[in-house]
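Lecture 7 notes: from sequence to structure.

We start with a single chain of 569 residues. Read the sequence below before looking at the structure.
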Amino acid sequence: MSRHQKVFLDPGRTPKELKSYDPEAIARYYRSRPWLFIWRTISIIWFFGIFLFHLKWDQWTGQVERNKYKRASEIRTTLTRLGPTFIKVGQALSTRPDLIRKDFLEELIKLQDQLPPFDNDIAFAIIKQDLGRTVAETYREISPNPIAAASLGQVYRAILPSGEEVAVKVQRPNLRPVLTLDLHLLRCAAKWFGRWLPLNLGHDLTLIIDEFGIKLFEEIDYVNEGRNAEKFAANFANDPEVKVPKIYWRYSGNRVLTLEWIEGYKLTDTDKIKAAGIDPNEIIKIGVTSGLKQLLEHGFFHADPHPGNLFATLDGRMAFIDFGMMDQLEEETKETIASSVVQLINRDYQALAEDFVKLGFLTADTDIRPIIPALERVLGNAIGQSVGDFNFKTITDDFSELMYEYPFRVPAKFALIIRSLITQEGLALSLDPNFKIVQVGYPYVARRLLTGESPQLRRRLLDVLFKNGKFQWQRLENMIQIARSDGNFDILPTARLGITYLLSDEGRYLRNQLLLAVTEDDRVHTEEVQRIWALVQDDLQPQKLFNVALNAIREFSTTGVAAIIPREF
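Now the structure, written as tokens:
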């Protein structure tokens, strides 16, 4: 069943019958049972009311410092009692050491995999019901108790009859009724109070809640998660720094997932990571780079990368172990995100505003002229004097000002992307408080644009390098220098790719523009030729450069492109 199909849920049936998220069907169900809605609302207000009263009481009596750990434990307990929806909120907050004070953060981290487990008998009954055989018939051995418990399920360590060591993930019972009620309540609250919130999303807040609901329902379908894992593994099949567990389909179902056991350390266990001889900074780099690959290369990204879902393996790789909350980006969106990052760093706010229109943050009929100086004012301050001063918290904080003043909106899909990026940055900050995501991310984006082989990505690069018909030498220099700051960048393949493109039919426009750039006013500018050579002289000896050019010409000689060169050059 696709995410857009709806299942009719009549007032006499239970939310357990709802296989995919359908807000209208959920609303029909709870409209006929208002007592469930009212009781849940009272419960939420009661639990949070008690917590807020205790915080205030500590302030009135001067006991804030004395009771801070007690209150931190209380908020974790409150979120746990309120169930999986609120646990998800706590998990998101647990990755933001720059937003949450340390005592609260330490407790919220426990929501990632240290929640109260449900009864083993219930878990084993679910395994039997889902797989059609008992636990003893399914596994040679299984841990007597779960080794971890999270918001939607708990995990056992087991051994298959064939001897492979595996993790067995079993879903919590009765999840759908709990999730449907909370999502309905959040949706109603968004409708009633959304207009009073200090937000200017440009559209109904319920769209973001609906996107969250769709992802939650996908997350509790373990067959879907298994497929996601295999797709993710295929994307990173040639990446030696990323580990994805194998799925054992014979031992998996809608509520039970059996996957390869992975030995490693939680990313928050910095001391253990260092003791194992693993450099936390390298793990950070792998995490950020793999996240950017998901967004800009594969388009299939992990929307919930909190520390409970990520491990540093014993051999220094990054292991992803949870694939319930994933999303897919279109090719054009990937390319626009890449170019918008470069426009931001280059401080080309007009081009950035145009990218915002392409991405859906601004409607096509929006007059971007008054927005451009506002972008420069807010984002210019956020970036600071160097790339390293950039961080997503600063951007999101300052950007909220723009969203309130101008007709910006957050496309529902981008709510997940922003959440993923902020979570990744927060995770990196927990390992290194001085971490700047763009110090790792921008060299990757620059390299991605410089080495992109698709026609669409090459057009994005041209958009970045040309402004008002003029070739921007400084931008090319900056991109190459920044790409070089990542030791993995090799200019030889890039130069060959560039020359190959230049000689192709597709590169006709670029040839003409370069010709104009270096022969303006009918004379060759020596300084421009020197500038071109300066870009590559450190990496390319004359013979190497000649060979690169010769190979590119040979590659296109069969297409007749070589014959074009004398006519145009």
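The chain has 25 helices and 13 strands. Keep this in mind for problem set 3.
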